[in-house]
Write a structure and sequence with these properties.
Layout (H helix, E strand, L loop, with lengths): L1 H14 L6 E4 L12 H10 L3 E8 L5 E3 L11 E2 L2 E2 L12 H4 L2 E2 L8 H5 L14 H10 L6 E6 L12 H14 L6 E5 L2 H10 L4 E6 L29 H7 L4 E4 L6 H9 L3 E2 L7 H10 L3 E4 L2 H8 L2
Parallel strand pairs: 1-2, 1-12, 2-7, 7-8, 8-9, 9-10, 10-11
Antiparallel strand pairs: 2-3, 4-5, 4-6
The chain binds SN-glycerol-3-phosphate and calcium ion.
Length: 311
Amino acid sequence: MRLSALMMTALMLATSPVLAFDLQAHRGGRALWPENTLPAFERALDLGVDTLELDVGVTRDGQLIIAHDRHVDTNLARRDGKWVEGVQPTWHSLTLAETQAFDVGRIRPGSAYAKRFANQMPIDGTTVPTLASLFDLVKKRKGSNIHFNIETKIDPTAPGDSVGPETFATLLVKQVRAAGLEKRVTIQSFDFRTLQVVQKIAPEISTAYLTIIDPEESTVSITGSSPWSAGFDPVKHDGSLPAAIKAAGGAIWSPYHPNLTRELLKEAHGLGLKVLPWTVNDAADMKRLIDWGVDGLITDDPATGRKVLGR
Ligand code: G3P
Ligand code: CA
């Protein structure tokens, strides 16, 4: 009797959209493989993670592609065998066919980015994938229950660099529904506008509110208002960021990990929010945050994440 109850619980956890502890491969695990590429996602699946974290944009012809920067990245892109130089177009200004001219399978040698991820294995000949191709890849792997944490790359201060929040969210929801993956996808964004649209048109898809407070690139203002917050500023909630996210209808808060304190985690949990900090790459930080009780970790280095979790 006891055993069958245990087996039932294990089965429920294996098939539930709610993960017990969520280990996420950030950009597919860019400490190990070229970021946001199909070979990286495939290897992260082989390694054993719970969720693939990825960034999406929309091409000129309305296709969802997986790329982090809004512009073609000079640290990642080669064309006809040569590194691209200088000011680059936005992915949004290119058609899907035009995006396929770039090889994004290795980091530019000698760059600060290459030094930061010195152990990344290059996979030359890799192009920017479509979101549809990632969904196809995962579907071919029968039995995979992988989840997806999909970030809309949109900047309210640079409206010409992408489609607007309404169009972005609508396209993404349509693709997720077409793949039947509503229960395995979270849509995340620093731009709360897209999350508001998702919550309105697709309440069955979970949303995660990304935040960063940093002297160089804050998306949140504790004392004023931010264009990223869609009106849900902490100042309206006694200065509490978790309370602002709760008021926005969020279920998940993903803070920049140095911004997270034990007290804030407790407050967020008290409000019923799940907390998934990014991007945690150091084993000691992982251990500390797990000890505090975070609900998951978004990491560039899922191999270290697995070791720390004892998997
Ligand atoms: O999941 C959160 C994290 O991906 C946000 O940072 O800049 O790597 O997209 P970024
Ligand atoms: Ca991201």
